[in-house]
Here is the input.
Amino acid sequence: MAQEPLPHRLTLAERSKLTVTGVTEVISFEDTQVLLQTGMGMLAVQGSQLQLKNLSLEGGQVEVEGTVSALVYEQTRQGGWLGRLFG
Here is the structure.
């Protein structure tokens, strides 16, 4: 039986505390960027002095503190001929 994806939600307070749910994996972590795999695709958290404060992959929740300057989702490519035409 396939497991249902975790609900995905972003909560950003004062650009300094980010809570992300629906996280399946922390891909990489640096003080200027955190890459997270979520149920909605790859999410890049960009900023400065970023720190992981809470990590619960069982519950799918990650908390990041620091100065958040951007939240960017990676574009997923379309399959088939349409994807090759526009990809």
Observations:
- Residues 80-86 form the longest helix (7 residues).
